[in-house]
Predict the structure.
Amino acid sequence: MRAPIRVACLSEHASPAALRGGEDAGGQNVYVDQISRHVAGLGYAVDVFTRRDRPDQPVVVDWAPGVRLVNLPAGPAEPMLKDAMWPYMPAFRDAFLDFAAREETRYDLVHGNFWMSGWVAAELRRRLGIPTVQIFHALGKTKRRHQGAADTSPAGRIAVELDVVQTVDRVIAHCPTERAELVEDYGADPDRIELIPSGVDLANFWPVPQREARRRIGLAPDGPVVVYVGRLLPRKDVRNVVRAVALLARDGLPLRLLVVGGDAPTPDPIATPEIGALQRLAAELGVADRVIFTGQRQPSELRDYYGAGDVAVTTPWYEPYGLTPLEAMACGRPVIGAAVGGITFTVLDGVTGFLVPPRDPAALAARLAQVLTQPALAARLGRAARARMEREFTWPIAALRTAALYQTLLAERAAALALGVDAPVEESALAPEPAIVHAGDHARRGGPRVTRRAAVQRSRR
């Protein structure tokens, strides 16, 4: 009986076991969980490698049929913000190699997630010649462009991303905007970018009768409700939503805003400073009684929160993709989203919701008023939203596309081996370690820029 194809899925900070909703626990955690489960369902064996953050964590956890979660030692066994993990990526790489040696396991393919695991994936590509797929989830140049001085990324991030793009076999883009950024900002070969949108779990997110949803979460049954679900960070700009609610309240619309998210199960402004900022803003604008904070909620609970709303809203000023709009649409709710990043791809303006400029509470208020005062329009948008999710944005579809990419790379690898042109690279050609990677272009990196083509040519000399 043929052994299954083994995939090493690298995700240094985003474990599928992490509670969703915290500062560094969001869409990437969902992606890694769902893609690994659904790819395994197609017959692959998937090991998800993440960083151990508790001393009592077992090394290996049987996570789902065909999926193991492997907690690697890399730095102190305690929680830390993802930006602080960068110096420990050589240890993460070495722990992966040690684990594979102990288990006597040969992986057929590596799937890197985020730029730090991308560095590890590129290292493995060079050392072992394993076909490698990379998905960034967010790009450093885009983040710096939108966040400026608020960007806390380590100095070497962009240089690493540039190297990873040139080294791995394929890069997955969530949406056309990300694909364009990879080509224009990183010089990626368009033929080596695969557009594979992330999906939504239709078994968990489905339309719930509004009155029933409100009863279950303890919300009064009457009156229009706007719902925001997601992480509470300044860039998500829930403050923009609060300002729009204040404009509508001034005009006499009796709406409420349900804010679902945070770093604790209760709306604690100490645990989640942005809650404190939002509470102060709501008080200043005279709408404190209209804004309801719930604290952190897990995926199994969220459909009732989406279902309790008449419309879902998400107006960040920076969003690489965004899974919560997909969840809201799967729950049959129209979405009003900022016309940024992946939201411009997932929300069809005038069909499944509306797109508005970021940082424009008046534009948001106008669209909210339109949806909240026209029930027939809201119902039509909600039906179209659910249909779009069923047709194009499911995890089984994403997994099929991902597995097809795997098969393409494995076929390319077999062909290269037959020609003897895809050998691993000697140690001297490897990328610099994090300690000597600096900001700026490759000329400033303190080490050689080695593309896959150059590596193959070197290995043949």
Observations:
- The domain at 210-392 is CATH 3.40.50.2000 (Rossmann fold).
